[in-house]
């Protein structure tokens, strides 16, 4: 396990040199669609992943890398999560659609997994400089202070990100209807930014329907280390090798159960 600060410093450096110079300077030639108009990649995504990949491997000899952009070119890259070698999981710019539109709501996500289990995670917001970190069993930290999830509150006061993206149309309608019984919904088009809201106590829950490891491996670990409870809707514990299903995060097990009953019946 490399020093957590060494990884943090590397992420900051790459964000400074490979991401921020492209923020609000991209033209159409620097943005392209992958699978559709809301699934984008930019020059910044590609440059940051190219820089992070060898640098992270150098910090941990023998490790491998799963990068979002590499996996989009070759899905077999995802199989590395099941190997014996430690694996870095990289989302070079989470919230690419925000980044491409010049909105300062994006972040870099890095996780480290061993034998299919997340053991460390980093989320860095290059705009305001925040850095969230966690090592399994050692708590969650935001800018050097230990953080805890928000205390549980009744359902009508629960603030969170209730996504209906990537779920079946009928389920989406149900969630929209039942979500009206909760508190304010804040969906930021960036899982990283939504995880940061959970860590600093500004949100109580999040619900997601696509489980790509670069979106959730680091955040789920941080949330657990901050005292939160999460699981797939059927109760299965999350692991970064899981790609299908919906994951719900809440302040504690009782709140999770209440939310699950309220939203899914």
TrEMBL record:
SUPFAM superfamilies named in the record: Carbohydrate phosphatase
Organism phylogeny: Bacteria, Pseudomonadati, Pseudomonadota, Alphaproteobacteria, Rhodospirillales
Domain of life: Bacteria
Organism from which the protein derives: Azospirillum picis
InterPro entries: Inositol_monophosphatase-like
Pfam families recorded: Inositol_P (PF00459)
Entry protein name: Fructose-1,6-bisphosphatase/inositol monophosphatase family enzyme
Family membership: Belongs to the inositol monophosphatase superfamily.
